[in-house]
UniProtKB/TrEMBL annotation:
Family matches, as InterPro entries: FAD/NAD-bd_sf, FAD/NAD-binding_dom
Keywords in alphabetical order: FAD, Flavoprotein, Oxidoreductase
Entry protein name: Apoptosis-inducing factor
Keyword Flavoprotein: yes
Domain FAD/NAD(P)-binding: 3-292
Originating organism: Pochonia chlamydosporia 170
PANTHER family the UniProt entry points to: APOPTOSIS-INDUCING FACTOR 1, FERROPTOSIS SUPPRESSOR PROTEIN 1
Family to which this protein belongs: Belongs to the FAD-dependent oxidoreductase family.
GO CC aspect terms: cytoplasm
Gene Ontology molecular function: any one: electron-transferring-flavoprotein dehydrogenase activity
Tagged with keyword Nucleus: no
Length: 386
């Protein structure tokens, strides 16, 4: 019997697991699947900017237990291993797993899927923080800090930072209940890949919520003193200053969860070198999907698109057919929610109206789709089961 091993149960992994089980494993006596994950729960990262605001979203909207889905599968065809991949031998077709109980296990595979995703820096719960319990603890601690703070600081000018500053500004800034600061490197929020008109709209909406913007500024050091955090700041002109906060929320980038992968398979930034067929370079039986790969930026839309492509083409592949190439979407697409009533974004070279961003994303931040994705019945853009 051939073994399919999937590492990770996130935005890309969860739909892949269920659809491979349905279309291949359960229909053939030749296959079984082993899933490896450090967590017992699926985490919905898209909603996290609103989750850190106390009282806005319950735990069950962002973390979904895997057991109800996995128990549907026969034990001789499916196994869930609670642990993290610690090393990979791609030539020996073996991955070593550090188990939750402190021991380790070697898992052999015929086909491997690396869907381990990424982690936020500073153990922020923008992504899963190790286990489900650790993630819950981190979320609750941040909520308490934000609730009791007089000053809240969001640092990092990307999508997560802008949306988090918007959520906190909406709740506390516009009514001046708290001082809210947003620190970012560039002249405008968001990266230059986003159109200037969208970046300027983001700046305007945040200013309307009384968020104090600090452009061209970086946090060089954060020191905890009792309930306060003292931030050392440096402006682009070389000047420095300090800022005291009781709730510091850095959103300064992601690290791919690929420490178990041999260095020869990684690029200079630690991402798995990924072909347009969504394979690891040099290995036809290793697929890479989502944040762990270097083919596209590590955004939810990329993970969604890659998972959707593989779900379509893998049944033919496992039946011995050829593998269709994945077409990277080169059209820029961004949807930025700014509080619970405003937003901005772009589709290609067109700016998207605020109402559409609110309608498509801002109302629920995807939590209306999260249960289906967690159960593997759909991706964000396609439904596979009724």
């Amino acid at each position: 019997m051939k073994t399919i091993v999937v590492l990770g149960v996130g935005l890309a992994g969860a739909p892949l697991i269920r659809q491979i089980m349905r279309t291949t494993v359960l229909k053939s006596k030749d296959y079984k699947m082993i899933v490896v994950s450090p967590t017992t729960h699926f985490h919905w990262p898209i909603a996290m900017p609103r989750v850190v605001v106390p009282g806005q979203m319950p735990d069950e909207k962002i973390m979904y237990p895997l057991e109800p889905t996995f128990r549907e599968y026969p034990k001789d065809k499916f196994e869930f291993v609670l642990g993290s991949a610690s090393s990979l031998d791609p030539d020996g077709n073996t991955v070593t797993v550090a188990l939750d109980d402190g021991t380790s296990r070697d898992v052999s595979y015929d086909t491997l899927f690396i869907a381990t995703g990424s982690s936020a820096k500073d153990e922020m719960p923008w992504k899963l923080v190790g286990t489900a319990a650790n993630t819950f603890d981190r979320i609750h601690a941040l909520q308490k800090q934000v609730e009791s703070a007089d000053t809240v600081v969001v640092a990092g000018g990307g999508l997560t930072g802008a949306e988090t500053a918007g959520e906190i500004g909406y709740q506390y800034g516009k009514n001046r209940k708290k001082q809210v600061y947003f620190i970012y490197n560039n002249e405008l929020p968001l990266s230059p890949a986003v159109m200037d008109s969208v970046r300027k709209q983001t700046k305007l909406e945040l200013e309307r919520m009384n968020v104090k913007l600090m452009p061209k500024t970086t946090v060089t050091k954060a020191t905890i003193q009792g309930k306060d955090t003292i931030l050392q700041l440096r402006h682009a002109d070389g000047t420095t200053k300090t800022l005291t906060t009781q709730a510091y929320l850095p959103t300064t980038g992601m690290t791919p969860n690929t420490s178990f992968v041999p260095t020869k398979m990684l690029d200079s930034n630690g991402y798995v070198k990924q072909t347009s067929f969504l394979r690891a370079e040099g290995y036809k039986n290793i697929f890479v999907v989502g944040d762990a790969g270097n083919l596209e930026d590590n955004r939810a839309l990329a993970a969604d698109g890659q998972a959707g492509h593989l779900i379509k083409v893998l049944p033919g592949y496992f039946d011995g057919g050829s593998l269709a190439e994945y077409k990277v979407n080169t059209k820029p697409m961004y949807g930025i929610t700014l509080g619970q009533s405003k937003g901005t974004g772009q589709m290609g070279s067109f700016k998207v109206f605020s109402f559409l961003i609110w309608l498509l994303k801002g109302r629920f931040l995807g939590t209306d789709k999260a249960p289906g994705v967690a159960a593997g019945k759909m991706t964000m853009s396609a439904t596979f089961e009724k």
